[in-house]
Amino acid sequence: MIGLSPLNPRLDALSGKRVWIIGASSGIGAALARQMLAAGALVALSARRADGLTRVAGHSKTALVLPMDVTNAPAWTLNHRVIEKLWGGLDLVIFCAADYQPQRAWQVVAERARHTIEVNLASVYLGLETILPPMLREGKGHLAIVASVAGYMGLPNATVYGPTKAALINLAEILYCDLHPRGLGVTLINPGFVKTPLTARNQFSMPAMVTADEAATAITHGLAQGQFEISFPRRFTLPLRWFSHLPRRWRFAALDRMMERS
C-alpha cells in the first residue's frame, strides 16, 4: 500500500533555517527556541519581556532578541525589517503568544476578554499582514500556529481562551487552502495540557500533562514529518477529539458532571 504524501514540506533539517518565534520568553515558545538553536537554526525571539528572551537566548550566536508587544502593529513592521536586513527573509514563523485566564461565564470582564482576544487572535493577523507579502513573492516559507485542544469544543473555564483557539484552528485551515497552492506550508499545533506559567493558573486536575520540552520535541517531530496538525499527547488529544463529536446532549451532561467534581 502506497502511503499518502505529507501535507506540508518536511522541515527535518533546521540547521541554517531562519525562524521567528512569537511568544518565546517562556513555556512552549522558549523550549522550541532552545531546541531549534541547538539544532543550528537562526532564531529570532519575540515577546514582551526582554529579560526572559535574553535568558532563553543564552550565549547563542544565532539567536536574535527582538522584544515586542504582539498587539502593536508598528512593532511587527520594525522587527520584521531587522530580520530582513540581517537574514534576508524567513523560513518559518511560529505564532505561540498566548494569554489565558481560567474563568466561568459569570466571571468575564469585557476589557480583560478584549486583551486575550488581541493577544491570542488579533496579533496573528498583524503578523500575517507583515510576513506574508515577501513569502508570497518568493513562493516559499512556513507558518505554524499554536492553538489548543481547548478549541475542539466549548469547555468550562475556557470562556474566552477557548473561542480564540477555535478561531485559530479555523484560520489555520483557511490559510492552508489559500497558501499551500502558492508554495507555503501551514501547520496547526494543538497541545493538550503543558506545564507552563499559564496552566499554573488552573485550579483543576489536568490529565496527561507534558513538559514544555516534551511539547517542543513533539512539535519539531511533527514539522519534520510534514504534518498539518500536530496534537499531543495523543493519549489525551485523540479521546478529546472523539468526545467533541458526541451528541451535544451527552457531551453537555458529561461536562456538567465533570464540573461538579472539580
Automatic annotation (TrEMBL):
InterPro entries found in the cross-reference section: NAD(P)-bd_dom_sf, SDR_fam
Keywords noted in UniProt: Oxidoreductase
Secretion signal, residue range per the UniProt entry: none
Keyword check for Metal-binding: no
Gene3D superfamilies in UniProt: NAD(P)-binding Rossmann-like Domain
Family: Belongs to the short-chain dehydrogenases/reductases (SDR) family.
Protein name: Oxidoreductase
Native organism: Silvimonas iriomotensis
